[in-house]
Specification:
212 residues
Length: 212
Amino acid sequence: MLNQLAQTVQPYTTYTPTTTNTSTTANLGLVSLLIVLLVIYTVFCTITFWKIYTKAGRSGWAAIVPFYNSWVYAEIAGKPGWWGLLWIPISLTAFIPIINIFTSMALLGIFVILAIGLAERFGKSLVFAIFGLVVFLIGYPMLAFGSAQYQGNSKENQPPEVPPAYTPPQPPATGPNPPAAVPPAEPSTPPSVPPVPPVPPAPPVPPAQPGA
C-alpha cells in the first residue's frame, strides 16, 4: 500500500512549472526584436546623415563620430559648432526638478532652430523644417536621398567684394570747345520817314504909304 501511495504522490512532487519558462522565452524574444530594430534604426540614421553631410561638402565619416557629428550638424545648419553640443550640459539637468522643465524647453528650441537652419540651406521652407523634425524618418531621408542640394548661406556663396581699383581721371582727348561765335549785332536803323519839304519864306510886307 505504501508503494501505491508513493507512486501516486511522485507525479506531484516532480512537477515543473512551464508558465515561467514560456514567459522568459517571450521576454527574450521581445528583447531580441528590440535589439534588431535598434540596429536597423542606427544604421539607417547613419546612412542618412552620411549622405546629408556629403551633400553639404563635409566628410561623411563625421556622422559616425560621437559629439563631432553634432558639431558638424550645427555648422551645416549655419550655426557655430558649439550649438550642437549644448544638449550635453542640458541633459545633465534632466534629474533636477523644476529646472529640468526649462532646460527641456531650451533643448527643444535648439533642435527647432537647427532644423530650420538645415532646411533653409537645402532650399526648403519652414513647414518642411517642422515636418522633418516631427517625422524624422521621412523628413531627413528626403534631404539625403532627394533632389535637394545644399545651398549654404547666401552670403557664404557670394565671392568677397573687391573694391574697384583707383583710376586717375583721364585728361580730355581734345581741348575744351571754344565758345560759339556770336555774330555782331546789326546797327539799328531808324524807320524810314519821308523828308519834310522846306517851308517857303513869307512874302515881304510892303512899306506903309506916308500921309495915309
